[in-house]
Amino acid sequence: MSTKPRVGFIGVGLMGHGMAKNILKSDYELTIMGHKNRKPVADLVKRGAKEAKNPAALAKASDVFFLCVSSSAQVEELVRGKSGIAAGAARGTIVVDTSTSDPTSTLELAAELKGIGVKLIDAPLGRTPKEAEEGRLNTFVGSDAKTLKELRPLIETWAENIIHVGPLGNGHKIKLINNFIAMSYTAVWAEAYTACTKTGVDQQTLYDVVKAGGMYCGNFENMSKWVIGRDPKAHEFAIRNCLKDQRYFNNMIEASGMAAIVAPAVKQSYAMAVAKGDGERHMPMMSDVIGELNGIKFEK
Question: For the chain, which domains are there?
Answer without folding.
Answer: 7-166 (3.40.50.720), 173-293 (1.10.1040.10)
